[in-house]
Amino acid sequence: MSSPIFIVLQRLRYPLLLLVIVYSVLILVFTIIPGVDDKGNPWTMSFFHAFYFVSFMGSTIGFGEIPYPFSDGQRFWALFGIYASVISWLYSIGRLLQIIKDPAFQLVLTESMFSKRVNRINEPFYLICGYGDTGKLLARGLSELDIRCVVLDKSQQRIDDLAIEENDINIPSLCANAIFPEVLELAGLKHPKCVGVLALTHDNQVNLKIAITSKLLSKNINVISRADTNDVMANMDSFDTDHIINPYQMFAKRLALAIRSPEAYLVYEWFTNADHRLIDEPPVIPKGKWLICGYGRFGKSVSQYLEYEGIRTKIVEARPQQTDAPGDVVVGSGTEAITLKDAGIMDASGVVAGTDNDSNNLSIIMTAKEIKKHHKIFTVARQNYHRNSRVFDAAELDLVMQPAIIVVREILALIKTPLLSEFLTLVTQQKKDWINILISRLSGIFDSDTPHVWTVSTSSLKSSSVKKMISEDHICIEDLLKNINNRDRKLSCLALFIKNKHHGYKLLPDLDQIIEVGDEILFCGDHVSEDSIHALLKYDYMLRYVKDGTSYRKGYVWNYFFGSNKPGIN
Amino acid sequence: MNLEKVVFAFFIVLALTLNFGFFLGEIEQPEHHNIYELFAAIIINLIATIMKLGDRSHIGSVLLATSLVADLHLISAAVVWGFAAHIFATGLSPEIMSTIVSLSGGALLANLISVILFVSDTVVTRR
């Protein structure tokens, strides 16, 4: 693609030619026409004077007849020159404005400015494709974490929204269709600092195309994609998409987890949802019959996972043919009392409003609550649009499923602490007793604070002496959890998980677990503990102090003269 | 035959020949170098530059670059001439004249490259 300046020059060829020719003819003739100087001697203009006069005449500044009053011949030619130059300037400026206002040129200009902004980014960034509810929340979340991103969306309105919105970090954005590889490249797919592509559009096929393009064009890039159906998920998995997120399935899985193991659900929620507190009671999910209104992607996932847990479900669906509903489906939207009664709401203990229409979902829940005024019913609703949050809050539902929020939380967790989601998956497979131990240990550190989780990797340590200590001196978890100012005091911090490429993983490692090079350790604690542990893994003398109590002095020189153990001897 | 191509070639070659005409002669002798010829060379070079703006091929960008070099040389020569004639006390001394002519010699070289590129490109594509 040519740069905008060359496009302008190319289209301005004729105006420029006209100006050069008009000016040259005017100058040339002025050097020939005879004139008279102030003493009455014959005189002709030099090129210098002619160029000077034509320049100010052409721009209609008009300094007068310089250097000597003109002869009639010169005045005649100046008269001609005034009109010729003014007309050619008008034509040229008109052409220039026309080019600038041309939509095609504007497009080139926006694209080139966008590409410049992307190329100037000098820190790791993510490429977000699709700026709907999910993209918007994610961009906000990333900017809170001080992570840069680039946004693509095919709707100009959404891109304008982004420009108006107040984000802490400036986000380059472009209105373009991300299914085209050249658009992804323009947005920095091959940029050395581009760490990941997030395909978050509402269209499964578009997400699929983005994922496959990114994987093919850029080898080491992290691709996280949203997918709503199982076959698209399988398709993405087949070419190694790093993370595939199906919000409907994730929600259904969590619902099933809450039924099977409320404690594990509590831990899961506490780590992924900032509003959730560890001391909260887990939701009590009734195991009677459930009504599922709407058998779309959401309804299918929920009924499938509820049935895994041995819960009977009854489907209510307005279009049973299109949605492939089971034989005993009740036909209707579920918003009328009669349909719900038909489906047996009187003896149901839970209702799921899972249509793709927010007002219908609210209507289903309100109707169900009205019918079961005197009995308790567990209500779950799908909220399709983030802007409806206030109404859904007011409806006092037991659980709200918001696809955008589920996807955003999952992606932010993956970006912030990749080890956390692995840990949580393992937690959900543990027995009740083990989870109770985890909860009691966690509540020993936190009371109501939101958890702070971070990962430490011993393979990417900068200090070689720290590495050497780890591989030789049997440093254990307990050492890392000691205060660097006073080794008798402990940090309020817990090691949740150790993962090693060669030795596998260990959940809740014991305090005497020995650390090895290549370990990745997931910690949970306060910010002071994080700083302390990072310092320990940076400076060998601090590590030595917490290990065996050798007090550390300021530095090498100090140690050499005053230190009890001189460096280089051990 | 294509009128546009004829005009294009005409200006490229004319820029070279006018430039050569000005350059020809004793380097220090003002009588050997006509100011109108320099003026014509500058104007034709500018026109050739503008015409080359439209060409988007790779050879087009090299042609444009050589033209810009020639413009730079010739305009510098004109500026030196203007300074010598109107501002310096010396007038058109032999030293000044040789500066002007050698600058136009530089432009001549750039124009020569331009014509060679143009001809070779024509030969390659027409075969």
Mean pLDDT of chain A: 85
The portion of residues assigned to helices of chain A is 40-55%
Number of domains of chain A: 4
What is the count of structural domains of chain B?
1
Q: What form of chain A results from the Cα inertia axes?
A: flat
Strand content of chain A: 5-15%
The CATH class of the largest domain in chain A is identified as Alpha Beta
Structure annotation, total helices of chain A: 25
Query: Mean pLDDT of chain B, rounded to whole units?
Result: 91
Strand content of chain B: under 5%
Number of helices of chain B: 4
The largest sheet of chain B is:
none
Number of strands of chain A: 18
Largest interface: A-B, 16 and 15 residues
**What is the topology, as strand order, of the major beta sheet of chain A?**
5-4-3-6-7-8
Key features of this structure:
A: 570 residues; alpha/beta; Helix Hairpins; Rossmann fold; 4 domains; 6-stranded parallel β-sheet; 18 strands; 49% helix; B: 127 residues; mainly alpha; 4 helices
Notes on the structure:
The complex is a heterodimer of chains A (570) and B (127). With 570 residues, chain A is α/β, with parallel strands linked by helices. Helices cover 49% and strands 14% of the residues of chain A. Chain A folds into four domains: 4-101, Orthogonal Bundle (Helix Hairpins), CATH 1.10.287.70; 121-245, 3-Layer(aba) Sandwich (Rossmann fold), CATH 3.40.50; 251-406, Rossmann fold (3-Layer(aba) Sandwich); 452-562, Alpha-Beta Plaits, CATH 3.30.70.1450. Chain B has one domain (3-126). Chain B is elongated and about 55 Å long. The two termini of chain B are 16 Å apart. The model of chain B has no long low-confidence stretch (mean pLDDT 91). The chains are: A alpha/beta (570), B mainly alpha (127). The A-B interface holds A 2, 6, 9-10, 13, 16-17, 20-21, 24, 27-28, 31, 46-48 and B 35-36, 39, 43, 46-47, 50-51, 53-54, 56, 78, 82, 85-86.
